[in-house]
Amino acid sequence: MISRRRLLATSGLSAAALLGVGSAAQPALAFREEEATVQDVWAVRDAQARCRALSSHDQMLAVLQAELAGGSLTPEDRRRVMATATCPTCGQLLGG
Fold it and tell me: What per-residue confidence (pLDDT) applies to 25?
């Protein structure tokens, strides 16, 4: 008869061995670099120009300032949020 401790130890080792073999067979899930095409670059530039032309950055910044003013953040935290806020359309920093 096999003890509970031995059963758990051997099944844990077996599972670890199987996972090890499975992970060696497949490449790790990770980010990979891809080169941007000319169309990608122009799409980003168009989005940035559209944001500036509509002055949406100024509007988003004003809304963010109003929301932060009513919150419980310290002035240091408010400055940090304002410095790192980005436009969801073009990805540019709103504060800069």
Answer: 53
